[in-house]
Every structure is written in structure tokens, then in C-alpha cells.
């Protein structure tokens, strides 16, 4: 629902950013607080720009590989059936191989007795489903378009001035406003960050052979290439691509015409699905690693990309964000049940303690993979190829790794 005409409004929680993570936080908080003895939490969700609508006639170039644990978060948000009823692409296997040798590892859902390894879902579809749920939840006000222009902090609340002239007062401000978070900058959260000197090219392609409901990933010294399988009403000849390349190489690939790009992509993928026949509009995303030293200060919490951004080689960005949502909502619920202030630093620090180690561990693993596969050293190439091949034959260990990645 939209903001009322009152120029001053009080909320338990204000969330800034109505992307996947921010909208999921709003929905999960609204649903989980319905049974509170003191009544449901009042929530404001602020977004500067209207979301791009989901287009059923073509695939969104931005997709996420959603794990089972993230799917459960979407189910608790009340949106999974709406998403599944429109267009999702479950994948049953993964093929990962080294471009500089013979190392290869395969994962299959049958080996861990699961129906799939996850789902490829378009970002715009998830956002649209979440915002549709926001619209029917009577304890959420969706304020869009609006931007914060000023803050005033007191001990017991945070006051926010919007560019539409409204003032909001809240116990807790949640920043889900993305990698370039203005809230993170305003409250002087320190970060450790660096540019990779790479861009990720994303688009949708059509391939000669069906994708076999398999995610394909080839590691090259210049960066990984992923084919993420899409399911277009039973047609399995389309994939979403994420191709990480050095910035100058990515720019030259973007400058190619469609046929030239398809030819280059066919070679880069070693024709794992035959020829790449067509490509939709291409986009390039500069890659930057970023991690906030702290996720919280008094009455402010960072969520998702506002707290951390990660190399896309394992497709874990959205899943880390949904895990943040799950942990923060748990801690807010715990504080409410105990009668504690949800914006107190002691409450918010518990969220940070739960999420920071896991996020750092995942980011370190991705950085390690990037450096390992980017190393142009004969001994390292030999070791990583032997290691991949041996791991592929140790089924219990391999299955433990994939279950961990799925959140099982």
C-alpha cells in the first residue's frame, strides 16, 4: 500500500531498497510478526526507482541460481508458488571443467537423492512476485519513488527525511540498497574492497543442443564462463550466460556483432552444447569485491550487497543475501519475543555474528578459486587437474560439498 497523507509516520522498521533482498526482508518480517502478542511489526519499504516488469515473452538477462535454502526463504515470504507458477528452471546436474587440462567434476541430484540442485530464476520475476506480496500485506507501506535526503539519530529512534517531504521515524533502518549503498556511506561503515579488473558479460543465448538441465562451467585463466540452463515451457535450448573476462577483452567482445560473439562463445565453451546460435542483448557488469568491516551500528543494519559483494563465479551472491535476510529476521523475532529493542546494537550484533563468518568464508573460497584457476603455472595446473579428477571419484566427499552448497 502507498504512504498515507500524513507528513510524519512512525514505523518499527524502515527498509531501503526493494530489490530481491529488501523485498524479501519486508515480506518475511511482515509474515513472521503476525502472531506477536504486541501486534505485527509496522514496516516501510522505500525504493528510489520502479522495478522493471517481468516480461514473459523473453528471459531476463539477470538471473540467480537459487539454492534449496533460499527457496525455503521465498516460500516463507509467501511467494514461491507464484514464482513456480510462472517460469522457473530447475537444474539437476553441474559440469565443471578446467580449460587448461583434463580436470573435470560432475554433480548430480540423483547422487544426493534430491529432485534438483537448485533453480535458475530471473531477477525480475522474483522482484515482481515479492512486490505483489508486499502490496497485499497490510503492515507494509511501499513508498516508491522516494529517496532519503537526511537523517537525524536519537537514542530511541532514527528520523528520516524523504525527498517527497515526508518524515519517517523508526527503531531500525535496514539498508538493502545495493553494492553502492548510500546508507553504508552516510553512516561511515568501513569496507575492504578492490576491483578485479574484470567485467561479467550476461545475456541469454540459444544453443544447438538442449542444455540437459545442467549448469556448465568452464574455468579459464582469463575468467570463468557459465551456461545456466533455462526452461522455456519445455524447450531446453536456451541458457543464461555469465562470462567473466578482463575489462579490455570484455569490451572487445561487446563490440562484436551477434554472429561474431556467438562464434567466440561457441569456442570458449568448447561447444559443450554445440554451436551458440543466437544471443540477446548483452550487458557487462564491472566486478568488484567488497566487504563491510561491520554490518551494524546502533539502529542500522546492512543486508545483502550493501554488506558484501562477491565474484559471480559460483553464483552465490543472491543466496548470501537471502541467508542474511533469514538471520536478521530471526534475531528481530528473538528480540521482540524477549521485549528487547530491535534497533539496539546488542540485538543487531547477534545478526552480524551469525552471518559475517559464513560470508567471509564463502568470499575467501571464491577468491581462492579465482586465483587457483587464474594461475599460469604448470605445477599448479597439474595439481588442480589431478585434484578435480580425484575429487570427482570420491563420491561421499563430493556429495557433502554439494549438500553444503545447497544449504542441506
Detailed description of the structure:
It contains 11 helices and 20 strands. By secondary structure, it is an alpha+beta fold. It has a single domain (8-406), classed as FAD/NAD(P)-binding domain (3-Layer(bba) Sandwich), CATH 3.50.50. Strand 18 (296-297) and strand 19 form a beta hairpin. The radius of gyration is 22 Å and the shape is globular. The model is unreliable at 1-6 (pLDDT under 50).
Structural class: alpha+beta
Tell me the overall shape: globular
Which segments are poorly predicted (pLDDT under 50) over 5 or more consecutive residues? 1-6
Q: Tell how many strands the DSSP assignment holds.
A: 20
Give Rg in angstroms.
22 Å
Approximately how much beta-strand content do the residues carry? 25-35%
Straight-line N-to-C gap: 36 Å
| Helical residue percent band | 25-40%
- How many separate domains make up the residues? 1
Oligomer: single chain
CATH class reads: Alpha Beta
Number of alpha- plus pi-helical segments: 11
What about the largest sheet? 9 strands, mixed
User: Which fold name is given in CATH as the topology?
Assistant: FAD/NAD(P)-binding domain
CATH homologous superfamily label? FAD/NAD(P)-binding domain
CATH architecture: 3-Layer(bba) Sandwich
On the 0 to 100 scale, the average pLDDT is 89
Concise summary:
This protein has helices at 20-32, 68-76, 80-84, 123-136, 182-186, 247-255, 258-268, 317-338, 345-374, 378-393, 395-406; strands spanning 8-16, 43-46, 63-66, 89-91, 93-98, 104-108, 118-122, 140-143, 148-153, 158-162, 167-175, 191-207, 214-220, 223-232, 235-246, 276-279, 283-292, 296-297, 300-302, 308-309. The protein has 408 residues and is of the alpha+beta class. It has one domain (8-406): FAD/NAD(P)-binding domain (3-Layer(bba) Sandwich), CATH 3.50.50.
Amino acid at each position: 500500500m502507498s504512504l498515507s497523507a500524513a507528513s510524519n509516520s512512525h514505523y518499527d522498521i524502515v527498509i531501503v531498497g526493494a530489490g530481491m533482498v529488501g523485498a524479501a526482508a519486508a515480506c518475511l518480517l511482515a509474515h513472521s510478526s503476525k502472531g506477536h502478542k504486541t501486534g505485527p511489526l509496522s514496516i516501510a519499504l522505500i525504493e528510489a526507482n520502479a522495478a522493471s516488469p517481468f516480461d514473459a515473452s523473453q528471459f531476463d538477462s539477470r538471473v540467480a541460481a537459487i539454492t534449496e535454502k533460499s527457496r525455503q526463504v521465498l516460500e516463507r515470504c509467501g511467494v514461491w508458488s507464484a514464482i513456480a507458477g510462472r517460469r522457473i528452471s530447475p537444474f539437476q546436474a553441474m559440469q565443471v571443467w578446467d580449460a587448461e587440462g583434463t580436470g573435470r567434476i560432475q554433480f548430480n541430484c540423483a547422487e544426493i537423492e534430491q529432485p534438483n540442485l537448485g533453480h535458475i530464476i530471473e531477477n525480475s520475476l522474483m522482484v515482481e512476485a515479492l512486490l505483489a506480496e508486499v502490496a497485499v500485506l497490510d503492515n507494509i507501506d511501499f513508498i516508491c519513488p522516494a529517496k532519503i535526503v537526511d537523517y537525524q539519530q536519537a537514542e530511541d529512534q532514527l528520523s528520516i527525511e524523504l525527498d517527497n517531504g515526508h518524515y519517517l521515524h523508526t527503531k531500525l533502518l535496514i539498508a538493502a540498497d545495493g553494492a553502492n549503498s548510500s546508507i553504508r556511506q552516510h553512516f561511515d561503515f568501513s569496507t575492504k574492497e578492490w576491483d578485479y579488473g574484470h567485467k561479467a558479460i550476461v545475456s541469454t543465448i540459444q544453443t544447438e543442443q538442449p542444455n540437459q538441465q545442467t549448469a556448465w562451467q568452464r574455468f579459464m585463466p582469463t575468467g570463468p564462463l557459465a551456461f545456466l540452463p533455462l526452461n522455456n515451457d519445455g524447450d531446453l535450448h536456451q541458457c543464461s550466460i555469465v562470462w567473466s573476462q578482463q575489462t579490455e577483452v570484455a569490451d572487445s567482445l561487446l563490440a562484436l556483432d551477434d554472429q561474431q560473439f556467438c562464434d567466440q562463445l561457441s569456442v570458449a565453451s568448447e561447444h559443450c552444447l554445440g554451436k551458440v546460435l543466437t544471443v540477446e542483448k548483452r550487458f557487462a557488469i564491472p566486478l568488484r569485491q567488497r566487504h563491510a568491516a561491520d554490518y551494524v551500528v546502533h539502529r542500522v543494519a546492512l543486508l545483502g550487497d550493501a554488506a558484501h559483494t562477491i565474484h559471480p563465479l559460483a553464483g552465490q551472491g543472491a543466496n548470501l543475501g537471502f541467508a542474511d535476510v533469514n538471520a536478521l529476521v530471526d534475531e528481530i523475532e528473538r528480540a521482540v519475543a524477549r521485549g528487547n529493542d530491535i534497533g539496539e546494537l546488542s540485538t543487531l550484533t547477534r545478526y552480524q555474528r551469525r552471518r559475517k563468518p559464513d560470508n567471509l568464508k564463502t568470499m575467501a573460497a571464491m577468491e581462492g578459486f579465482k586465483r587457483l584457476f587464474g594461475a599460469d603455472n604448470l605445477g599448479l595446473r597439474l595439481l588442480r587437474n589431478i585434484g578435480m579428477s580425484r575429487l570427482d571419484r570420491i563420491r561421499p566427499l563430493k556429495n557433502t560439498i554439494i549438500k553444503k552448497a545447497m544449504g542441506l
